[in-house]
Amino acid sequence: MDERITIGYLTRTKGVRGWVVTEPLTDDPQRFEAVEDVVVEIDRREPIELKIEDWRLEGTIVLLKFAGIDTPEEARERVLKGYVTIPKDQLAPLPEGQHYVFDLIGCQVVDADDVDLGAVTQVLPMPSADVIVVRRPRGGEAMVPMVGDFVESVDTQARQIRVRGVEELFED
């Protein structure tokens, strides 16, 4: 199957018509409005291709109604504890200067002199700014805030993030 991106986690049923409570794994839960065909992936089971028949936002959760799943029992048996995925090419475009986390993972981090500082292994969401976790070439990790004071450029095509002013984070 093509590379897919997870946009929601199916947690429990709601009501008697097969609606499923979904924890959105996207910054914009409204994106479910533009999604029709999805694949639900559940550990150790074959992926299930489904159509979203209806959806609605309730506070911070999304309610999904899948075509052909009309009772809570069917929903529990077929899709609960599954991840709602879409093809990567259906991702919503991001504003200039923003990046999807999966595009940052694996990027090489270099300084102004092109010295390899390591590779991004994780992106941590923080209240003021996301932080990239960089596995250093000689072992250990460093954490770099994704702010203009430290990040000079991000080139996801070249798989490189250029940083400055963080030398002390990478000292042994």
Folded structure, characterized:
The protein has 172 residues and is mainly beta. It folds into 2 domains: 4-90, RimM (Elongation Factor Tu (Ef-tu), domain 3, Beta Barrel), CATH 2.40.30.60; 101-164, SH3 type barrels. It is 6% helix and 44% strand. It is built from 2 helices and 12 strands. It is elongated, with a radius of gyration of 20 Å.
List keywords for this structure.
172 residues; mainly beta; Elongation Factor Tu (Ef-tu), domain 3; SH3 type barrels; 2 domains; six-stranded antiparallel beta barrel; six-stranded mixed β-sheet; 12 strands; 44% strand
Distance between the termini: 43 Å
Overall average pLDDT:
92
The CATH superfamily of the largest domain appears as: RimM
User: What is the name of the CATH topology of the largest domain?
Assistant: Elongation Factor Tu (Ef-tu), domain 3
Largest sheet: 6 strands, antiparallel, barrel
Radius of gyration: 20 Å
Total domain units: 2
CATH architecture of the largest domain: Beta Barrel
Please indicate the percent range of residues in DSSP E strands (runs of 2 or more): 35-45%
Number of strands: 12
Overview in brief:
The protein is mainly β and 172 residues long. It contains two helices and twelve strands; from the N terminus they run βββββαβαββββββ. Strands 1-2-5-4-3-6 form a six-stranded antiparallel barrel. A six-stranded mixed β-sheet has the order 10-9-8-7-12-11, with no helix packed on it.
SSE layout and pairing:
Elements: E1 4-14, E2 19-24, E3 37-41, E4 48-58, E5 61-66, H1 72-78, E6 83-87, H2 101-104, E7 108-110, E8 116-124, E9 131-135, E10 141-145, E11 151-155, E12 160-163
Parallel strand pairs: 7-12
Antiparallel strand pairs: 1-2, 1-6, 2-5, 3-4, 3-6, 4-5, 7-8, 8-9, 9-10, 11-12
